[in-house]
Design goal:
The protein is α/β, with parallel strands linked by helices. The chain has two domains: about 1-210, 3-Layer(aba) Sandwich (Rossmann fold), CATH 3.40.50; about 220-275, Phenylalanyl-tRNA Synthetase, Chain B, domain 1 (2-Layer Sandwich). The protein contains twelve helices and 13 strands. The two termini are about 30 Å apart. Bound molecules: adenosine-5'-triphosphate. Adenosine-5'-triphosphate binds near residues 16, 40, 41, 42 and 186. It holds the Pfam family ABC_tran. Belongs to the ABC transporter superfamily. GO terms for molecular function: ATP binding.
């Protein structure tokens, strides 16, 4: 369990994280979603005890991170896959982590195997690793202490499609065994496919949170017909909303009601399905557009 309570971080005039509160529960993957510069990394760094908050508190497994007696055995953290000594080999990095946590050396080989780094790759220096290999090593470091909680900042960065699938399966398996996973991403799809719960952050503030199903369900239906005008009229006469766009009608009715209404009015339907992503995608696109516009147009140091 990870708890963030009214967490705030200011850097001079910039409020990077603004009164952020949420909980990441055991047995679930919590996706922390936001555009670049939204405050994800700063929040996760505060949770992991690397950045002191201006105000607010965080708890991991009931304690402040810095009060955990052997943090690596309880919490696996991957914040910056390159933040390791570049001259050390992957194997050395894992051996040092194992020794620090009082783990047997056999754990190193087990982790290399788990993240599919070959013995040859494990003996290369970190400076010669690709970003994807660094991420795999970072995951190995995070998991080596067999923790209950995982905190990962953009773990899919640099991974190829097979690597992304592997990562998803790994996180799913970890949560299914009762672990708590908190991962950040600036990509909606990445969060959508793996997360059970989603927290959306924009300009340092939480703008939405809930289960994935709650956030993605919008109760709207997408209907196509050769006669869109007749379809829209039939829906409106039944007291339903009907917005014509892109050669289809989107209505606030569920698919069964929309289909029955069209049928009763004698309108042939050529496609009928729940409307996609809806609210969350729309909101996220707006957030992304706003943050990109701010980056380009806002004078330095001004907050949106
Ligand atoms: N050490 C710092 N000093 C000053 N400002 C900072 C510092 N760290 C972060 N910020 C600012 O805080 C805001 C949030 O940054 P943060 O890195 O947490 O965002 P993010 O959501 O992780 O973005 P990204 O997806 O690009 O990694 C940004 O405006 C950033 O410029």
């Amino acid at each position: 369990m990870i708890i963030l309570e009214s967490l705030t971080k200011r850097y001079g005039a910039v409020t990077a994280v603004d009164d952020v509160s949420f909980t990441a529960a055991p047995g679930r993957v919590t996706g922390f979603l936001g555009p670049n510069g939204a405050g994800k990394s700063t929040s996760l760094r505060m949770v992991a005890g690397l950045t002191p908050p201006t105000s607010g508190t965080t708890r991991v497994l009931g304690r402040r991170f810095t009060d955990l007696p052997n943090p690596g055995r309880e919490v696996g953290v991957l914040l910056d896959a390159s933040a390791q000594h570049a001259g050390r080999t992957g194997r050395e990095i894992l051996r040092i982590a194992a020794a620090t946590m009082g783990l047997p050396r056999t754990r190193v080989d087990a982790m290399l195997d788990l993240v599919s780094l070959t013995p040859k790759e494990a003996d290369r220096r970190l400076r010669d690793y690709s970003l994807g290999m660094r991420q795999r090593l970072g995951i190995a470091s995070a998991l080596i202490g067999d923790p209950e909680v995982l905190i990962l900042d953009e773990p899919a960065n640099g991974l190829d499609p097979a690597g992304i699938r592997w990562m998803r399966d790994l996180l799913r398996g970890f949560a299914d065994q009762g672990g708590t996973v908190l991962l950040s991403s600036h990509l909606l799809h990445e969060i959508e496919v793996v997360a059970d719960d989603i927290v959306v952050i924009g300009n340092g503030r939480i703008v939405a949170s809930g289960t994935k199903d709650e956030l993605l369900a919008n109760g709207r239906t997408f209907v196509r017909s050769d006669d869109l005008a007749a379809l829209a009229t039939a829906l409106e006469r039944a007291g339903l909303e009907a917005v014509v766009s892109d050669g289809a009608v989107v209505t606030d009715a569920d698919p069964a009601t929309a289909g029955r209404t069209a049928h009763a009015a004698g309108v042939a339907v050529t496609e009928l399905r729940a409307a996609d992503g809806g609210g969350l995608e729309e909101m996220f696109l707006q957030l992304t557009a706003v943050s990109q516009r701010d980056q380009h147009l806002a004078p330095e140091g001004t907050a949106a």
